[in-house]
Amino acid sequence: MKLEIIDGGEELDVMAPRCFCGKIACLQTSWTEANPLRRFHSMKKGCGFFVWVDDEFPPREKALVSWLLRRLKELEKDVGRRQSRERKLIGWRLAMEELDIF
Question: Domain boundaries in the chain?
Answer without folding.
Answer: 1-55, 57-102
